[in-house]
């Protein structure tokens, strides 16, 4: 039976790139996102690979929906999940705290922290069925440093960093590896979401330097999940060469 990788946020960016790499390497996939049409298109594009693909329309902010959708997966899928990639997440807005829209805060906290926790709690019992399974949490350079206007997004990604450490402690006796990935600037739909559909502002984020591509991050994820059973990579910070820190970008 093929091993399954459960990827949240697979309709775009890092998650979509992971789907390609894991399929190429013979994994079957559970693809999770709200835009199920995008997942179905991705499934078609992966049709050449001899893998099983299950698309799951799910808003990870809804605890009940998370529990129900995961528990109603076919037994053959649930019982063969070996890797969870907690990738779904977003930044919304770049305002200072006093000017922020509080609904933006709710969206980030509910998705990046609470959604990640709901999914993890529901999937961990299935990871425990096997030896040497793994959780990969996608944090950010914003989970290591703080930058102007990053406030709540940075706080949520610091929380992911802390939860990776906490999960490692809680799950060590079950042989579940936990890896935290912290990418710098990567060109995906991320900025379009952050700036609420303002294409010009979103594109300007990547002006004058070569940002990471989704595939660069997916390759790092593949690397950490393809180590021997006795080896865990705890943390990876992966940056564009032109980015020295959260705030220092060498733009030409
Ligand atoms: N791009 C960067 O510069 C960067 C840097 C560091 C860290 N990150 C982190 O990397 C992760 C992936 O980001 P990306 O750059 O690939 O951005 P992206 O292209 O916007 O992809 C985000 C994914 O998350 C999914 N998602 C968002 N809210 C969701 C929800 N409530 N329920 C289920 N799925 C949800 C989206 O799917 P639907 O909209 O279809 O639901 C989409 O598939 C995020 O956690 C982000 O914070 C990004």
At a glance:
The protein has 252 residues and is α/β, with parallel strands linked by helices. It has helices at 13-24, 36-45, 63-71, 75-78, 102-127, 151-171, 190-194, 199-204, 214-225, and strands spanning 4-8, 28-33, 53-57, 81-86, 133-138, 176-183, 235-238. It contains 9 helices and 7 strands.
Q: Could you explain how this protein is built, in words?
A:
By secondary structure, this protein is α/β, with parallel strands linked by helices. The protein has a single domain, classed as NAD(P)-binding Rossmann-like Domain (Rossmann fold, 3-Layer(aba) Sandwich). The protein is 42% helix and 16% strand. It has 9 helices and 7 strands. Strands 3-2-1-4-5-6-7 form a 7-stranded parallel sheet, sandwiched between helices. Strand 2, helix 2 and strand 3 form a beta-alpha-beta unit. Helix 1 crosses helix 9, helix 3 runs parallel beside helix 5 and helix 5 runs parallel beside helix 6. The protein is globular, with a radius of gyration of 17 Å. The structure holds NADP nicotinamide-adenine-dinucleotide phosphate. NADP nicotinamide-adenine-dinucleotide phosphate (NAP) binds next to helix 1, helix 5 and helix 7.
């Amino acid at each position: 039976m093929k091993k399954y990788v459960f990827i949240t946020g697979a309709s775009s960016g890092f998650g979509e790139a992971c789907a390609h790499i894991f399929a190429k390497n013979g994994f079957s996939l559970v693809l999770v996102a709200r835009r199920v049409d995008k997942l179905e298109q991705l499934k078609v594009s992966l049709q050449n690979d001899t893998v099983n693909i299950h698309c799951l329309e799910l808003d990870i902010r809804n605890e009940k929906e998370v529990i129900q959708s995961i528990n109603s997966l076919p037994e053959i899928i649930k019982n063969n999940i070996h890797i969870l990639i907690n990738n779904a997440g977003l930044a919304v807005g770049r305002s200072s705290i006093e000017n922020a829209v509080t609904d933006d805060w709710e969206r980030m906290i509910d998705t990046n922290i609470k959604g990640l926790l709901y999914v993890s709690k529901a999937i961990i019992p299935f990871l425990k069925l096997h030896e040497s399974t793994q959780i990969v949490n996608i944090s950010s350079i914003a989970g290591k440093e703080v930058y102007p206007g990053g406030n709540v997004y940075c706080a949520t990604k610091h929380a992911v960093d802390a939860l990776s450490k906490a999960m490692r402690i809680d799950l060590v006796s079950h042989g579940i590896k936990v890896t935290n990935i912290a990418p710098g600037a990567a060109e995906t739909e991320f900025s379009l979401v952050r700036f609420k559909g303002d294409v010009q502002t979103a594109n300007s984020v990547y002006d004058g330097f070569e940002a990471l591509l989704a595939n660069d991050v997916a390759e790092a994820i593949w690397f950490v999940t393809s180590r021997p059973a006795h080896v865990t990579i705890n943390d990876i910070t992966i940056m564009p060469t032109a980015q020295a820190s959260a705030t220092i970008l060498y733009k030409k």
